Amino acid sequence: MKKIASILCLCLIVFSCHEDKDDNITNTSIVFNFSHNWDGEEVSSSNFNTIQYTNANGEQLSIEKLRYLISRITFTNLNGEAYVLEGYNLVDVTNNSGLTFSSSTEIPFDTYTVSFVFGFNNDDNYQNYTDLNSESWNVPEALGGGYHYMQLEGKFIDNASAEVGYAYHAIRAVDATEDELEFTDTFIEVDLGEFELVNNVVFNVEMNIAEWFKSPNTWDLNELNNALMPNHDAQVMMFQNGQNVFSLNSIEQ
Fold first, then answer.
1. 204 falls within a domain
2. Which Pfam families match (predicted)?
3. CA-to-CA distance for 234 and 226, rounded, in angstroms?
4. What is the total count of domains within the chain?
5. Is the pLDDT of residue 177 over 90?
6. Which domain holds residue 82?
């Protein structure tokens, strides 16, 4: 009898250990890493404050600040079911913060189209975010309120060979020339592609900063360097140039 009891106990232990194995996990955790380059040349905060980049218009420039907002990271399966990760992420390259975003939301193993929003969509943009308020991320009420999508700042060499500051700030485009504000949506939905997720997954996403100045609008910093937030047409141009800024460098799982 003791021998039989010992065998039963051993079977229970083996079964219990088997149940703990990872092959019974059916949900995946999600991590996004954000890196930056200038037409393939790595860019980090260590490269800031030195005029060393040349944009598509031939102007030499530096980067002194780069912050931008990522939201609505979404996984849509083949049946059209969408899983939206909780939260948003303020990537601050200047201060090396927000370069990694780990979500507490787990999703089932499946095949998904993966996307995210650069900035906030309209529903999200007009909520109140205490942490973003403390980061001075707000847009003035005179321009419709809400929040920035990006702040990219530095200096460039102008046509008179002088060193001049620029502030390439992206927000929801607003025309404030009339009595009533008129808006154009300029948040960007970024599609990273379709993937089968079968394990905990890390997405390595890159921003090519040079693309903001490149296509389809060759950006002339001598003409468009400051006061861009109230410039409706400049904001639309940023939206157009931003369509090819982000790409998926690699996926790990």
1. yes
2. MbnP (PF20243)
3. 10
4. 1
5. no
6. 28-252
pLDDT bin (cut points 50, 70, 90) of residue 19 is very low
pTM (two decimals): 0.89
Structure tokens at 180: 């009533």
pLDDT higher than 60, residue 221: yes
- Residue labelled with tokens 């847009």: 139
pLDDT digits (tens, 9 = 90+) for 51-60: 999 999 999 9
- Look up tokens 């060393």; give the residue: 52
What six digits make up the tokens of 35?
């890196």
> Which structure tokens are listed for 97?
């913060």
